[in-house]
């Protein structure tokens, strides 16, 4: 279950994907499969080859991409990997959001 993001944040993420960018969005997230995880960062791109190539640099596998019919396919980043990638990508605004969420 996702929550803790505004409609504007979601629109901005989708718009960035529609423009062909690699886009990040972080929000609260609860899933019984990952009881210790409280947040997720979704990293999406409409160009799946571009997204997969980006992911290789962080040890992410193409088969981990959540393929969506609506065009907003993405990786889900959790835990330490999430923090590491956000830091490396210079997404300090996303890190700030994570701090406020915890």
From TrEMBL:
Q: Which domain of life is it from?
A: Bacteria
| Name this protein carries in UniProt | YneQ
From which organism does this entry originate?
Siminovitchia acidinfaciens
From the broadest rank down, the organism's phylogenetic lineage runs: Bacteria, Bacillati, Bacillota, Bacilli, Bacillales
């Amino acid at each position: 279950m996702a929550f803790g993001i505004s409609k504007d944040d979601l629109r901005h993420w989708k718009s960035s994907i529609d423009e062909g960018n690699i886009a990040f969005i972080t929000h609260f997230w609860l899933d019984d499969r990952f009881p210790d995880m409280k947040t997720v960062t979704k990293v999406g791109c409409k160009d799946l080859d571009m997204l997969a190539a980006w992911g290789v640099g962080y040890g992410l596998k193409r088969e981990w991409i959540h393929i969506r019919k609506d065009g907003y396919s993405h990786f889900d980043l959790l835990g330490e990997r999430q923090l590491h990638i956000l830091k490396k990508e210079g997404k300090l605004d996303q890190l700030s959001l994570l701090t406020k969420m915890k």
